[in-house]
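Protocol step 4 of 6.
Sequence for Oxidoreductase N-terminal domain-containing protein (Aspergillus campestris) entered exactly as in the expression construct, tag removed. Do not edit the line below.
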Amino acid sequence: MPQTKCWTLRQKPTGWPTLSGPKSTFALTTRPIPPLGKNELLVKTVYLSNDPAQRTWIDSCASPGRLYVTPIETNQVMASRGIGEISTQLPLTESPFTSTAWEETFSTPFSPSWPYTALKNWFQVITMRLRIQGFIVLDYAAQAHEARAVLRRAIEEGKLVLDAESETVCSVRFEDIPAVWMKLFEGGNRGKLVTQLE
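Step 5 output, structure tokens:
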């Protein structure tokens, strides 16, 4: 049976994730790729999205009711979004953007120990009768097609420019995936941080 490399959650961190030593957050392992079932594709991960929200998915204090995804448990593969290359011969014209994981090939926040900035101007919020409300992009998933059309039009009209300043793409070996992800918390990126697998 073919094998694939993957990064699993070795143990949930209580502070900053660590990449080495006996208390390392992640473990590099290999797993068998199960035979493809009906309507399944074999996808090779090419790009991985690195997002701060992933830190909340592995937090030891994470409350499942407050997350918009299921928390990642110990020994599960670290989840991500990404773009893959279909490894089967099919007449498809686009690479899939999908929920993936830190796997080469696959078939298809708050922590009390972290420093945080508290809101200090509650008096102004109250006296000015302001409302504070958070949101996540999934709250507007039904309008995603409209947003994509607006962004596409802005790019075509030159109002939205995507250049080297807009993203940091790190071309690395599979073994370096966690090190790239940690750049999010070290100021090691400008704009969107993307992992490109060599």
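Step 6, annotate. DSSP finds four helices and eight strands in the chain.
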